Amino acid sequence: MKQIGQLDVTDSKRLVLSIGEFRGVERVDLRQYVKVKDGDEYIPTPKGVNFAAEWIDDFVKMVEKLKEVD
Q1: How far is it, in rounded angstroms, from Cα 15 to Cα 35?
Q2: Over the chain (70 residues), what is each successive 10-residue block's mean pLDDT?
Q3: CA angle, 17 as apex, 12 and 22 as ends, to 5°?
């Protein structure tokens, strides 16, 4: 997986956006990572979403609708 970006949520949690391939299909992964105790390394958790890259335009449209919510 190639990391595209990250967003620190707290001192010990971050969201990581990655793209990669699984079984010949390009996939997008948005996952929560947590900081390892007594270290600076972050490891992935099961909390996240993974979907086919062909859905990215629809995903972006859906996220943009959040700006319209009152």
Answers
A1: 11
A2: 96 97 96 93 96 96 91
A3: 120
